[in-house]
Design goal:
The protein has three helices and four strands. It has 98 residues and is of the alpha+beta class. The protein has a four-stranded mixed beta sheet, with helices on one face. The longest helix has 19 residues.
Length: 98
């Protein structure tokens, strides 16, 4: 495992926003190797979230991981991205409970 993980400048803002919306958040940033930055859960629904700045692009490792991952995953760049992701998670939660 790497000693110091490089995170985008908006990483903490995104984490804070998810938490303000009632999500549990675990930073996976230290893992590297294309693994998304965050594990986010809400009401039994869990997503992997890659945090990117407004113009940030995925690395080759991140693209490879995304192609192999069969679970829910999002790229979030700002507060609106958090809001959109949580809305989808809530819709999934409602379907699971139906």
């Amino acid at each position: 495992m790497r000693r110091f993980a490089k995170v985008d400048a908006n990483h903490q803002e995104i984490v804070t926003e998810f938490k303000m919306r009632g999500c549990a958040v675990l930073s996976l940033a230290p893992m590297g190797k294309g693994v998304p930055d965050l594990l986010v859960a809400f009401g039994g629904v869990t997503w992997l979230v890659e945090v990117k700045g407004p113009k940030g692009k995925e690395t080759e490792d991140q693209q490879k991981f995304a192609l192999q991952w069969t679970g829910c995953r999002a790229i979030v760049r700002d507060v609106q991205g958090v809001k959109d992701t949580v809305e989808i998670m809530i819709a999934q939660m409602v379907k699971l409970r139906a």
